[in-house]
Each structure stands twice: as structure tokens, then as C-alpha cells.
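User: These chains co-purify. Model them together.
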Amino acid sequence: MLSVENLHIRFRTGDGLVHAVNDVSFSVDAGSRLAVVGESGSGKSQIALAIMGLLAKNAEVEGRIMWDGQDLLGTSNREMNRIRAREIGIIFQDPMSSLNPYMTIERQLTEIVEHHEGMSRRAARARALEVMDAVRIPDAKARLRAYPHEFSGGMRQRIVIAMALMCQPKLILADEPTTALDVTVQAQIMQLLQDVQSDLGTSVVLITHDLGVVAGFCEDVLVLYGGRVMETAKTMALFDQPGHPYTRGLLRAVPNIEDPSDALTAIPGSPPNQHRFPVACPFAPRCADVVDICRETLPQLRDGRACLRPIEELT
Amino acid sequence: MLSVQNAYVEFRVAQTKKWPWSPAGVVHAVNGVSFDLEAGKTIGIVGESGCGKSTLIRSVAGLAPLVSGTVTLDGEQVEYGNRASMQRLRATMQMIFQDPIASLNPRMTIREIVTEPLTFFRPEMGAADRKAAALAMLERVGIPPAQANRFPHEFSGGQCQRIGIARALVAEPKVLLCDEPVSALDVSIQAQVVNLLKELQREMGLALVFVAHDLGVVRHISDEVLVMYMGAQMERAPAADLVRAPQHPYAKALLSAVPVPDPNVRIAPQMLEGDLPSPMDLPPGCLFASRCPHAMAKCIKARPPMVQRKGHEAACYLLDDASKKPEPSLIDG
Amino acid sequence: MIGAVKRRLNSATFADERAGEMVASRSFWADAGRRFLRNRMAVFSVGMLSVLVLFAIFGNLFSRWSFEEIDWNVLGRIKQDGGPSLENGHWFGVDELGRDLYARVVQGTRTSLLVGIIAGPVSVILGATLGALSGYYGGRFDRTVLGAYTIWLAIPYIIFFVVWQAFFGRSMSQMILVIILVNWTAGLLIVRGQVMMLKNREFVDAARMLGMSDLAIIFRHLAPNVLWVVVIYTSLVIPEVIMMESLVSFLGVGIQEPNTSLGALLSEGASTMTFGTLWQLGFPAAIFVLAQVSLFYIGDGLRDALDPKER
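Assistant: Joint model of the three components:
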């Protein structure tokens, strides 16, 4: 349904080019749940913005983003607006960035359908009530007339999800949807996303840094580092036997509340320098299993892993 | 080493005034929190955003006014109005902050940043000694001294947090207050910083107060954990015990929601219904009562005291009643 | 002796020490300087302004006439004989009273630039200091300052010039003083806003954890962080102040004759425009425009070089 092919994203900045995304490919099937996992600087959010056509002006994009047989990178603004409104919903980390503080919730929910689907105001209102119920906002009727600031952070994120659902999109892109929220609220929102996904059969791409959230939600995982895909696998397989030293390091570094041991295993070193296009494995400087060849050759994704060393030899 | 008894913090908010002459509203940010900390130990303070955990340690540090309560540091009660007492407090107790980049002055080189505390707390040192001490401290936290003349923006977030740690520890304090020190960092870097803090704690015999919202991190670094809600303490227990068997209903709900990085584990987050009370108009009873699934009539009347049970201390009437006959729940009747 | 120095230069520790200093990186200001130098128009304008400053200082050396001397030969025949001429030494011609316009333009440029270069920065420093204190302390002090600011803006500033000069005369120093007093609000709001934003940054808390006093925090930690705003703002206020001086001089409440300023010269030139002595307007106007345009481009270059958002 959605397929990203050889995507490159570069930014022209005052300090020269920044290579944010380097040759990333993946696809999303109808009704699936994919997690794109990465730390800051991995390029995960830029991929989401590229799909939505919302990249900053100083970006250079290469590659293809195919959506229903159409390359989104070549699409006109007008067509992109239609796709954004009707086919792909997006949820950002900060709900206030998607909500207009001067408009009632009702207006914000109904505007899209009235404009893009020509729905009557009454029908749009009925639909808004429906999605408000679907995202479990209590007392929906009364709260339609409220403004965003009258809601708590968790409720606002529900409203953003409701907005994303208004047009029954085929795909929801959720960019760190729970990072700004407390754990109890995070659990509710993830539960909600899961229910919505299974009830409506929408595909979800969850962009996150939190492996804990991924474990409970997604079927497939794509691990990014330094703008490149390190590993892609089924969630179960990835957690059982991670195939890339970075994934292994990441899993060991996550503080697990169930784990009684005291030590956290850190990945030494700092995030990669993105001013040069990677000519070798971007993770090599921090890798525990690094051999000389890793510093010279750029590993390609093979059998779901971009690592030059056989999986049996990894620590 | 550090003892905080019955701390209360309030803020006045002028924006709520109806008329210029009407009294300002009062937000009750911290409502009666106590804890003790020994040298070389760590207490973790957890709670959701807005629960007053940062405000608590900021007021202990003297950055926010403590309305009532006593803080005893190294056997001496701190007088927050007294300059000399405050300067002794600051020499003994330092702080690291949430945003590693914003906590460093962008116009100063990192050597200047790390040297600055020495000019205040070690005035007897010569300039050359101060420079040497600062470089040694930077090296200890993993910043090559050759980079000491650089400016903060040339370092990554994790490195900036290391520099912040170097600044806090260069004058060798005994207590380090950590205000969400790793929540702005990536997972792989977060573990580096946590491990560094633990090493330094061992070497210097530091007492750590570690405020965070991530229970996983807190569990790994703390000996004891304090759970806060609406500015009040809900439960205090050794870290392992708290995670294994929380006693307070709020602590239970909080722990049930923590995601586990293992697809074979299904968490069953406990959903909390109901609204939070307004911090400007606190109810007389238990602050969690409005969302508590076990709320009883007496929970609404008076605030439950901290009671001991199985090595835990929790502010809940349920613990009192566990041995006696249970009172009917509000929801049932 | 030399051997010892050589050995020291070759020793490993010395090399290490030097290497340590080598990675000293450029400060924010060095970076900004580099960006400024890349801006051709701004650098050209700095050159232009320098020429004007040199003209104001040394222009007299090339003048055969003083700025107050009347050339009786051309008086009465100004339209015919008073134009720019190499023969009688009136490079720019003469004014309506037969005084050498070149000497007067030099004098006027000196007044205008002096007013701009002294009154501009001083009033910004005044406003910025008040703004910084107001933003840092907030509360009642902040409300009082803002109240005074609002009231001040509502009063037409010409009144101050008229009243001030009625009491204290129309000398150059009084002119500068009154401009500073009228402009005390310059930079106040923008610095206040910056300080309000910066004071919540955690490095301020870190400084407070050292026991630093409020004033030390404002001047040691906050001031270097708002200096870029102050510099940009000053570059905007200088042409504004020159304009203000010219305007009041144009309206006749400016500097005392025979001293003059670009504004006064423009005023005189404009009043005789219809008599066919256009040089009387043209020369002062050209200098004035040149000064304003180059100051504008310098300000523009500073903004590009210093504003973090522009990068």
C-alpha cells in the first residue's frame, strides 16, 4: 500500500549538507502495524514528514514514496492536501501543534470532512460524535463545544487521533504519539490506537524511540541508525534474537522494570556525524563487534539485517 | 546526610486574579513530603508530570521557596534566609538539570563553566589549580581535556549532560540533586549517564536524589523510591520491593502502565477514571481518592498518614485496614 | 640557551599542551564576524561609512573656507555664481547666506554622526539595562517600567526638544542628552523579552546554585547572551537617532546656528529649492542618504550574522 524506495533526505544548512536519511526502503501492507525505531538523529521523523510532504524548505529528497501507485514526492500540493486529509492521518508528539487553539473541537473535527468530502454540517457533526466515542472521550456532545486548552494532555492527544480518524484514513502515521505523556496516559493511548487499528483495519506506522511501546503494539519493526536501516524483522523475532549489534545494544540499554539486575549496558560513544554521507557502517565507531571491514564497507540490508558479520558471531 | 521533613511548597499565581486588588490564587505544589538519605545512597522520586517532584528538590536546593518544613543537611538545619547557611548548603549540595544543553551557558567555554564553581567554593585555590581541577573533572566524566576550550553547542546532548555533572561535582559536594537528568537523552546515551552517575557515587560517596518519570531508570539507580501524586507522598519503599509489590493503589496503577520491552509480556495497564483535584483547591482527604478504585468514605474526610507495612510506607487507609475488617467501598454502597 | 628552548619545543608534553590549545574553537562572536565578512553589501557599507567618518573628521583640511565665513563676492548673486566651483573653492557651492556649503556639510555630517554614534548606543544601553532588570525581576518593578514606557510613547517627543532647549539652550551636548532621554525606551522591550526567556533556562539555576547574586547573574551570565540583540538593535537605533536629529533640526528646534547638522542643511536647501539653487539640497541629501543606506546595510549584515534564527 505504502512503499518507500531508496529514500534519501538531505538538508542544506549553514554548516553544509546534513545527510538525515540515506537510502531507506520499506513497505507497509494494508492493516499492518509497523514500528520505525530510532534515536534522535536517526531520521525517523524526517521519513514521516517526507511521506506527508511536510519537509522543511531546505530539504533535498531523492527516491520514491509510492502510495496506491502514485509517487508522493512528485504530487502537487493540492493533491497532497487531499491525501493528507482523506487517506493518511498523522499524529504528532505535541497534540497542540495539530490543534488550533482558537477553534472549538467540533469545528476542527468537522472542517476536514465538510471541505474534502462535502459532508453536510449535520452529518459531519454526527461523524464527529462517532469518532469522539471511538477515542473514548466521555460526554462527547458537551465537549464538542470546548476549546483545546480545556483538555488535559492525554485528552488532547485523543482529539488529535479523532481528527486523524474523521476521514477514515487507510494509514495513520503516529510520530512519537505518547512521548510527551505520562505512563498511565501513554498506556491508554496505545490501547486506544490498538483498538482503533483492529476495529477499522487501518494501517499504523508508529515512529518511536521507545522499544517498550513497540513490544506491546507492533508486528514489524524497522530499526534506524544514522539515517540507515540497521535491521527489519517481526517484533517477536527481533526481541528474541536481535540480528544487529545496534539492536542488541539498544535492547540491553533499555531499563527494564522486570529485570532485577542492577547494571544497564550502555552503548559507548556519541551519535554519528551526519555531515558526510556514510561510506562505512554508521554504527561501526560504537559497535562492540566491529572488525576492520566494517569501517570500510557500507553494509546493505540482507535477510533483514545490515551487518557484515554473521549473526552467530555477535556478542 | 540529608533529611527533609514535612516539606510544603506553594506558588502564587497572579493570572487568576479577578481584580488587581483581589488576592492571588495559591497553587499547592508540594504537600508534606519527608525523606531521609544517607551518604552513598540514592533515593528515586517518581510521579507523573505536575506531581511536584521537581519542585520538591528545587525547594530543597533553595531555588523555590519552601513554605514550611525543615531540611537538615549534614547534621545542620538549613536556614534558607541566611546567606552563610545557604552558601554552606550549596557547597555540600549541587544539582544537575533536565535539559543538558540549556543548563550550560552558550557563551562560555566548557572549561569556564566547570571552573566557575571552584571560584565560589574553593576561593583559596589559585587559577592554575582551578584550571587543572576542572580539566581533571572533565576527563573523569569522559570529555577529553583537549576539547575544554569548546563551546556547549559543539557537544551532543549526552556530552552536555556529562559537562553538567562535571560542573556539579567539581567542588566535591556530598549530595547531588538530579532533576530528570536523563529524560532528554536517547536510550543508549541515557545508560551511559546513569552508569557514570553510579560510578561517581561510589568514588565520591555521594548521596543522590534522583527525580525521574521513567520508573525503569529509577528502579536501576535507586536504593529507595518515593512515589508522589499531586505533591503528596503516596508510597516510599526499597526500589526492588516497590516494583515487585506496590502497596498504594496509585503506585499499583503507575507500575501497571510501565511498558515492558518484551513482546511476550502483556502488560495490563490499570485505567484510572475520574478527574484530578485542582491544585489550587485541594480536598481535605486523600488526594488520590477521586480516581482511586478503592476509595472509601473516610478517604474523603481526612488525609491518610504514612503507615508501615512489610518494609513499605504508604499513605493509605487500606494498609491500616488490611488486618481489620474491610470497610464497605464507596462504589458499592 | 637556545638549545634548551628547542628541547622544550620538541618535548612531547609541550606538543600536547599546544595541541590542547589548538582545538580551541571559534566563539560565537568569531563565527558571527566570519558570517558578517561574507556579506558583501555590509562590508562595502562599512567602507562607505568609514569614508563618511573620515570626511567628517578631516574634510575641513580640504576646505578653503570656514563654515561660518560669508563670501561677500557671491552674496546676492548666489544663483549665478554660488554653484559648485573649483575656482573659488566652494566645492559644493554656497548656501543662501553665501557661506561655503562644503565646509557646512562637513560640519553637519560631523554633528549628525556624532549624535548617532553617541546618543544611539547610550540610549540602547540605558533601555537594555532597564529591560534586563525589568525582565529578570518581573512583578511590580516590571509593571512600573512597562507603565512608564507606555505613557512615554504616548507623548510626542518634539515637545521635549522644544521645552528642553528653552531651558538649556541648543548646544550639541544638550542635543545629545535630550535625544538619549527621549530614547530611553530603545531596546527595552526586546531585551526584557529575551531576559524573560533566558532566566528560565537551567544555566541560570546552575548559577544560582553557586550562590551568585542577581546582578552578577544578569551581567555575567545573561548579558553575554543578549548582547547580540543589543548590537542589532543599536545598529537600527543609530540611523533612527540621526533621523530624529535631522527632523527636529528640519523643524527648526535643532542645533544653534552657525553650527549645523544634515537635517538643518536639508531644511535650508529645501526652502530655497524653488530658486534654482538645487545644490543646496542635493549635497546634504546625498550625504544623508549615503549615511542612512550604509547604516541600514550594516544593520542588516549584523542581523544576518548574529541572529541564530537566520542560520
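Chain B has eleven helices and twelve strands.
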